[in-house]
Amino acid sequence: MKDMQMFCFQCEQTAKGEGCTKIGVCGKQPDTAAMQDLLVFALKGLSQVAVEGREKRIADPEVGRFISEAMFSTLTNVNFDPSRLADLVREAVRLRDELKSKVKEAGGIVPDSEPAGFISGDSLEDMIEQGKEHGVLAEKDPDEDIHHLKQTLIYGLKGVSAYADHAAILGQEDDGVYEFVQRGLASTLRRDLSLEQWIELVLECGRVNIRTMELLDAANTGTYGHPTPTRVPLGYRQGKAIMVSGHDLKDLDMLLQQTEGKDINIYTHGEMLPCHGYPELKKYPHFYGHYGTAWQNQHKEFPKFPGPILMTTNCLQRPQESYKDRIFTTGLVGWPGVTHIQDKDFTPLIDKALSMEGFAQDEDRGEINVGFGRNAVLSVADKVIEAVKNGQIRHFFLVAGCDGAKPGRNYYTEFVEQVPKDCVVLTLACGKFRFFDKDLGDIGGIPRLLDVGQCNDSYSAVKIAMALAEAFDCEVNDLPLSMVLSWYEQKAVAILLSLFALGIRDIRLGPSLPAFLSPNVLNYLVENYNVKPITTPEDDLKAILG
Ligand code: SF4
Ligand code: SF3
Question: 427-440 b/e with 16+ CB inside 10 Å = b?
Answer without folding.
Answer: bbbbbbbbbbeeeb
